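pinned: reference chain
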Amino acid sequence: MAVIAIAGAIGAVGRRQTVTPSSVGITPFIRRSTGFLLLSLFAVLLIALPLARAWIHSPLWALFDSFYRAGALVFGGGHVVLPLLEAEVVPQGWVTASQFLAGYSAAQAVPGPLFTLAAYIGMAAFGWKGALVATIGIFLPSFLLVLGAFPFWHWLRHQPRFQAALAGINAAVVGILLAALYDPIWTKAVNEPADFTFALSAFLLLAVWKWPAWAVVLVSFVGGWLRALFG
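pinned: its C-alpha cells
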C-alpha cells in the first residue's frame, strides 16, 4: 500500500498528464452525499474491523477482516493480493501453503476473477459459511469504492494531477506484479528443473504460439497429472 501511495504521489508531482475530455458523459445515478457515505463506510470498515477483531474472538470475523483488508488494498489485479493474502491465511492455519497454491491454480483454471480464490480458502477453512464470508469480504471494498467514487468520477477524470497519479500507480503495479510472481508463486511452485520446464512450456504456448488460455491450462493439467502418476 505504501508503494502505491508513493508512486501516486510521484506521478502527481513529477508528470504532466494531458487530459482529453470525452464527448460522452455518464449521468451519475448516485448522489454525491450517498457516494460520500459509501466512501466513509469503506474507510470505517478498513479501520474498525482490525480494532474490533481484538475483542470479538470469532474466526469468521477474523476471516472477514482479513479478506476485506486484502480486497481494499489491491491495485492492478488480483495477483497483487497474493503475498498479502498468503500472509493472512497461512500463518493463521486456515490453509497450508500447498493448499493455498492449489487454490490459486484452481482459480486460474476457471473463468472469472482471481478473487474466486477467496471462496476456496473460506470453504477449506470454515465450510460454506467461510466461503460466503470470505467472498463478501474480498468483493465488498471494490463495490463501496466504485459506487462511492462514481458521483465524483466526471470531475476527477478531468483533473491532470489525478490522471498523472493514476499513471504513476499503473507503473508501480507492474513492479508489484513481478514481485508477486516471484513470491509466493515462483518460490513455492518452481522447486526443481521439471517445474521450470512446465512453466516455460506453458509460457511459450501462451505467448509465442498463441494458444488459448483454456488449452494451456488443460495441457498443463494433463502434464502434471502424468508426472504425478509416473514420476
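why pinned: The chain has nine helices and no strands. The radius of gyration is 20 Å.
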